[in-house]
Amino acid sequence: MPDFDYQLVVIGSGPGGYIAAIRAAQLGFKTAIVEKDKTLGGTCLNVGCIPSKALLASTEHLHFAKERFAAHGIIAPDIKVDLAAMMKRKTEVVGKLTGGVGFLMKKNKIEVVKGLGRLVDRNTVEVTGDDGAKRTLHTANVLLATGSVPVELPFLKFDGKKIINSDQGIALDQVPSSLLIIGAGAIGLELGSVWARLGAQVTVVEFLPRIAAIGFDAETSRVLQRHLEKIGMKFELNTKVSSAKITDQGVEIHGENAQGNVFFKADTVLVAVGRKPFTAGLDLDKAGVRLTDRGRVAVDGHWQTSVPGIYAIGDVIDGPMLAHKAHEEGVAVAERIAGKPGHVNYDVIPGVIYTAPEAASVGLTEEQAKEKKIDVRVGKFIFSANGRAIASDTTEGFAKIVADAKTDRVLGAHIVASNASELIAETVLLMEFGGSSEDLARTIHAHPTMSEAVMEAALAVDGRALSA
Ligand code: FAD
Ligand code: NAD
User: What pLDDT, on the 0 to 100 scale, is given for residue 21?
Assistant: First the structure.
């Protein structure tokens, strides 16, 4: 066995890569992590999950202050926005967390190598620093965790000013008077909420017949759309955008829907039509690493690529592009490389859209169960009948439990609520343990909490909700 400098070199320091590096170090591997960007943490910490949630939180406070303070007896007539201060806070939040990853690398004795990583062969990674200096790392195993980048539409090339992607959409220095968003997925809805609450006239154009169509049930889409319309967001569904013209004033967009041709004008256009895997500069073909038909790195059930000893996880491989999916694969792949039984349960990955209210979903929707010809019973409870929601002024939404009609095993949960991202967790745990709606219904939930609505939804599966 040749003597390598490292047992694992991870390329990419997002939630997939940095977690894999930590788990590998915990398992006793000499580990290095390669990152081309200035700070660690990848898309999620630098330009994704974290900055978007900071802005969502700030603008949610703003909206609540403007719309609901008076009802709470709080008189604050002169609420103003300091966008620069809001952005500064967002940058500080990001700095704290990316710095935290640096701390974790030191603590776990993981060597951070700054620069663009390239595969020379299955045991050699070459890193080119910003100054052009090259360094060669010899390693027993390589993990590709290089993530993804925004998809560009051919007729709407990003210019960072009038035609922007999410990287710029979290960093505008003024509120556009009109913002056209293409795509009603997580990015379109989250960033649309941010800028609508800051005063932009936001129109979201979506190709599909409903918003949040990927991974969420039809009722979630309907309820969420209704709430987003209340903050002034407009939706043009079933609409395909086909061409664009940049003018001095902004952008003109042409498209079509069932009625015929449509035309929109906006100061700024945010393209949020998905992300694509990022593999540029890795020299995958030379190393013999195969891609899938859709351009993601092909892996087997243990995240090994077509080249033994080279593994891949996160957004760069198949599956939902979510930080917690990348994170879980990071843990599992490190354990597999160490000869342990690392595992990811792909049937139980929650998805959340962090609007107000939030939408959260795990497992099968009613529609998917029908398609799979699984007979299900569904229990639902609305938050307007939940004591804590009424006391807290957060009565929007519902909790829904989808259970197998024969076995009562919970197959899915769908929640629209102010804190759906947190409420979904107990249903995820329940599903991990193969639990039934009866298990959830008989679990004591503290009173008053919004989680009681989840318990009531479980009771409703058997037609015996107690508070509705
Ligand atoms: P990434 O986080 O993309 O990290 C890849 C890293 O690899 C990057 O730092 C990159 O610079 C580096 N890299 C690439 N190639 C090389 C190379 N050759 N050499 C060296 N370094 C390289 N997901 C959620 O679960 N929840 C959310 O709330 C959420 N919000 C989001 C909001 C926005 C606006 C966006 C854009 C995304 C959001 N996501 C969210 C998705 C989430 O960010 C990704 O799923 C996650 O970051 C994927 O992690 P990863 O480790 O696979 O890759
Ligand atoms: P997405 O795939 O979630 O949604 C894209 C939407 O754009 C879809 O509804 C699609 O039908 C629509 N679309 C595609 N082409 C179109 C066209 N030409 N015209 C009109 N509509 C079109 O993608 P996204 O919102 O860009 O997010 C990218 C990735 O980042 C996703 O995988 C998402 O899971 C992840 N992300 C997650 C979160 C979260 O977990 N809260 C937040 C942001 C991003």
Answer: 98
User: Model confidence over 390-400: pLDDT tens digits?
Assistant: 999 999 999 99
Counting Cβ atoms within 10 Å, is residue 464 exposed (0-12), middle (13-18) or buried (19+)? Answer: exposed
Nearest to 330 by CA among 11, 18, 7, 12: 18
Ligand 2 mean position to 180 CA, how many Å? 15
pLDDT in tens, 158-211: 999 999 999 999 999 999 999 999 999 999 999 999 999 999 999 999 999 999
Answer with the one of 225, 243, 273 that is the final residue of a domain.
273
Give the C-alpha separation, 138 to 5, whole Å.
Answer: 5
pTM: 0.98
Number of domains in the chain: 3
Contact 272 CB / ligand 2 (< 6 Å): yes
Looking at 245, 273, 301, which one is the last position of a domain?
273
266-284: per-residue pLDDT in tens? 999 999 999 999 999 999 9
Q: Is the pLDDT of residue 1 over 80?
A: no
- Ligand 1 atom nearest residue 115's Cα: 20
- d(CA 277, CA 275) in angstroms, rounded, equals 7
Q: Is the CB of 205 under 6 A from ligand 2?
A: yes
Q: What is the pLDDT of residue 66?
A: 97
Domain that holds residue 324: 8-149+276-346
Residues 114 and 216 reside in one and the same domain: no
Specify the CATH number for the domain of residue 233.
3.50.50.60
- Report the b/e string of 94-128 with b at 16+ CB within 10 A: beebbeebeebbeeeebbbbbbbbbbeebbbbbbe
Both 196 and 314 in one domain: the answer is no
Asked if residue 155 belongs to a domain, the reply is no
Query: Atom 41 in ligand 2: which residue has the minimum CA distance?
Result: 353
Q: Mark whether 318 and 379 lie in a shared domain.
A: no
Please state the atom number of ligand 1 nearest to the C-alpha of residue 49. Answer: 30
The answer to whether residues 249 and 398 belong to one domain is no
Look at residue 59 in the predicted model and tell me its pLDDT.
98
